[in-house]
């Protein structure tokens, strides 16, 4: 999970939580008193502060303290850390406010910490942070951005979009699976696909995992996405190469992946009832799979369709070699395939 994604989620979550908190309190305060410049300033400050603070904490926890742990362990560490930070802030707040000698302010630290406002506020903070973390986990299971589409019903009715698709597949997967056995092979796939998070950096959306294959997609409303798709693939392969010693010592295998890329129109729609997902349907998806299937026969790690190769931003950044014209399975006409020099 990237920092921007986590921070945006926490800011939105704490904005909603802050509104709920003040709606609860408004029942005991006159409306005329409640809506004032000072209170609005306090609302904005507390919302932004908590969103930035807890979002940043969660990012560092997921990035540096608890990599590749079970979700309940991650949630436990995150909530414990956030609780400790919250108590530290409340403690500092006690000594700062007490220095102003307010008559109604508790003189005892114990009385202050056990006051209903502090106790309820701390519990409320933990509940909000837990809900935000769980929501992010659900979003990751569905795919980044998919939860928003399902909630808003963006694709409840089928829509046509032009998108880039990339199919990546582990080379020599059958031989590797026979060599390692099912359990160790599954661990290898886990390790490899864990590194697919690099595609998020390049705006790629991991659409689906199919065995040792993954499908990634990009929109084409931004010309940069075509460059991003190629850079993402090479960044992914570089990560695997940099971890070659680990893979060699752990599995006695250095994994490498092949990929096919194509661009075209697809129908995007929400499908399913008991398990919902956003599906991309159409010839573009099938053609991309066939292009990736040609990689072994053409002894190439990356094959591109002519439609993708002709995208304006691509032709200005890369040079290509034509592999030939091929009649792919299920196609009525041959398709020109290219590789990058």
Question: Could you write a compact summary of the structure shown?
Answer:
The chain is α+β, with helices and mostly antiparallel strands and 341 residues long. The protein has helices at 3-25, 31-34, 37-65, 71-98, 109-113, 116-142, 146-152, 173-180, 182-194, 198-201, 224-242, 244-251, 283-293, 295-298, 306-309, 312-317; strands at 159-170, 205-210, 213-219, 257-271, 277-281, 302-305, 320-326, 335-340.
Looking at the chains present, what oligomeric state does this protein adopt?
single chain
Approximate shape: elongated
Low-confidence sequence ranges: none
Strand content: 15-25%
Q: List the total number of helices.
A: 16
Question: What is the H/E string?
Answer: HHHHHHHEHHHEEHHEEHHEHHEE
Q: What is the CA-CA span between the terminal residues?
A: 32 Å
**Structural class computed from helices and strand pairing:** alpha+beta
Using the CA coordinates, give the radius of gyration.
26 Å
Instruction: Give the overall average pLDDT.
Output: 84
Largest sheet: 8 strands, mixed
Number of strands: 8
Question: What proportion of the residues is helical, as a percent range?
Answer: 55-70%
Report on this structure.
With 341 residues, the chain is an alpha+beta fold. The protein is built from 16 helices and eight strands. Helix 1 packs antiparallel against helix 3, helix 1 crosses helix 6 and helix 8 packs across helix 9. The two termini are 32 Å apart. The model has no long low-confidence stretch (mean pLDDT 84).
